[in-house]
UniProtKB/TrEMBL annotation:
Domain Peptidase M20 dimerisation, chain residue ranges per copy: 223-311
Biological process per Gene Ontology, one example term: folic acid catabolic process
Protein name stated in the entry: Aminobenzoyl-glutamate utilization protein A
Keyword presence, DNA-binding: no
Domain of life: Archaea
Pfam families per UniProt: M20_dimer, Peptidase_M20
Cofactor note: The Mn(2+) ion enhances activity.
Length: 430
């Protein structure tokens, strides 16, 4: 039998780090999570479509790409029955412990990686110590390998404690594309949760600092658009073409000219553009990837509407059509002060914690807000905490890494907080 997770924090995190799988492709990752969850012996384990409605997913990848990642997982020993359960990219899992009457407490951790090639520099610890990504095209460059390790360790700790109530861990796929939070929030497992904790490592907070709850996460949406025109010979008969490249140029310029809103911060960006065939051909198809964000959900909706309108009108100006798709989105949800206090109290006295910061602005976006929003709308409390870690470079870079001292710190804080709300309820649920 394997040693307890709490005795394998570093090795388990490093194993996850070696097998980074992007959104909805987390086949091997889910397989390892399932192995560990079964060893812990929970009361209910739901995988993929057992954990959420696949129709609620957002930002689903191309089926051919999914098949490639599934075959890779098969080659690494994932059994066919589990792969069949995850067919179509339905990855991720929910683990539930039930122990009598008491509050319903949830913990959400994310499991996906990024399309970033990890550094091979000898000064990069994963390279130096032999746990660099085995996949050249992907990397755990945001700390989700640490998050999964926390989720398993806390699940084990609560299982071995005298916690009374229901404890649910959401091992959520596809956070990086804001695709997995919504289906898990809409699932039966998120219903009637009294307290929800979500967690992230680092985010420019050093080892020893804990932020008990974030404020002002930006609501956001991802947008894909394709401009379709008519090709023509650029020298002989350019007048016969409807130039998708011109539509693209107008769209980019006009997107950045969208008026900002007086009610708060708004953001918009076109991050990728590609298309055309040759210098002497009027381009008949160009595609872009963009996003809109807002300080509130309402401000994001304003920017989203303006962005979509801008893309359509830019196409029309040049005789083109625009196919615009909202690929994914997430709302704003702030941490509840009452639960922030619980986390702050839970962090004080934990070995390695030097600074407890009650709240901090998040400044980015997160689809854990879907789960937070549902819990709050149903009368529960939610918080999104940050466990600081020294990371040598920023998140989403090829040399990102975490200070592994943060692993045990995070486990103890989360476990303390979860057990604390159980004691506060004195065995009575909301």
């Amino acid at each position: 039998m394997s040693a307890p997770v709490t005795e394998r924090l570093v090795s388990l995190r490093r194993e996850f780090h070696q097998h980074p799988e992007p959104a909805w492709r987390e086949f091997y990752t889910t397989h390892r999570l399932v192995e560990e969850i079964r060893r812990i012996d929970v009361d209910e384990l739901a995988v993929g479509p057992e954990a959420y409605d696949p129709a609620d997913r957002m930002a689903e990848p191309d089926p051919d790409d999914l098949e490639r990642w599934m075959e890779r997982a098969r080659e690494r020993g994932v059994d066919d029955d589990l792969l069949e359960t995850m067919a179509g990219g339905n990855t991720g899992a929910v683990a539930v412990l039930r122990n009598g009457e008491g509050p319903s407490v949830g913990l959400r951790v994310d499991i996906d990686a990024l399309f970033i090639e990890e550094s091979t520099d000898e000064s990069h610890l994963p390279e130096a110590e032999g746990f660099r990504s085995k996949y050249d095209e992907s990397m755990h460059a945001c700390g989700h390998d640490a998050h999964m390790t926390w989720g398993l360790a806390v699940l084990e700790a609560v299982k071995e404690s005298d916690f009374e109530g229901t404890f649910t861990v959401f091992f959520q796929p596809a956070e990086e594309v804001s695709g997995g939070g919504h289906p898990m929030a809409e699932s039966e497992y998120c219903a009637d949760v009294d307290y929800l904790f979500a967690v992230h490592v680092g985010l420019d907070h050093p080892t020893g600092e804990v932020v008990a709850g974030i404020e002002r996460p930006l609501a956001m949406c991802h947008v894909d658009a394709t401009f379709e025109g008519t090709s023509a010979h650029a020298g002989k008969a350019p007048n016969e073409g409807d130039n998708a490249m011109q539509a693209l140029g107008t769209a980019i310029q006009n997107t950045y000219a969208i008026p900002r809103h007086s009610d708060g911060m708004t953001r918009v960006n076109i991050g990728r553009a590609e298309g055309g065939t040759a210098s002497n051909v009027v381009a008949d198809e160009v595609s872009i990837l963009g996003e809109a964000r807002g300080e509130t959900t309402e401000l994001m909706e304003y920017m989203k509407e303006k962005l979509v309108d801008t893309l359509h009108t830019s196409a029309e100006m040049h005789g083109c059509d625009a196919d615009v798709e909202i690929v994914s989105e997430s709302p704003r949800a702030d941490s509840d002060p009452e639960l922030v206090d619980v986390v702050a109290d839970a962090a004080r006295g934990v070995e390695g914690v030097e600074t407890v910061t009650p709240t901090a602005d998040f400044g980015a976006s997160e689809d854990a807000t879907f789960l937070m929003e549902r819990v709050q709308e149903e009368g529960g409390l939610a918080t999104y905490l940050i466990v600081g870690t020294d990371h040598p470079t920023s998140h989403h870079t090829s040399t990102f890494d975490v200070d592994e001292r943060s692993l045990s710190i995070g486990v103890e804080i989360l476990t303390n907080a979860i057990l604390s709300v159980g004691e506060t309820e004195s065995g009575e649920s909301r």
